[in-house]
Amino acid sequence: MNIYNQNESLQDLKENDYTLQQLLDLFALMDITLTNQVDLILSTCLELDGEISLLRSEITRFGKRVKENIERRDNLKRYISDLMHTHSISRLRSERFTTTLVHQDKVVVVNASLVPSDFKTTEMTERVSIDQDALNQAVISGEQVPGATLQSTRYITVR
Length: 159
Known about the structure:
The protein is mainly alpha-helical. It has helices at residues 3-15, 20-30, 34-86, 132-140, and strands at 91-93, 98-100.
């Protein structure tokens, strides 16, 4: 198989979601060895890993930009609020906007342990944990445990 066809196949693998049978049929048509098939698939996996890494960094970058823009917006609104408060203006009209200064009181709990019990409610929650080691041992030894089953998986490691 020449390099052009291999690169085209690599792009095809990356962009389409093949079933195992479709992959087998595709490779049979391409008439390439098992080693080359694995090489082609793993090359695709590496390229996808690179794209995943790039997309994750973009998500992080956009998340930071969102936070910065929210902070910038809130600071600008706070400036208008302070300005209106300083000049005792409750409503301000411009060509595009009508701005109203609203005063709202809010109770904030700064130390919950100091709040009298008259203002508290008690909620009981039960937390259940499973002894995974004991459960593994029982199920692997053949014991039937309701709610648990032995599941086998296959995977590959690539270095």
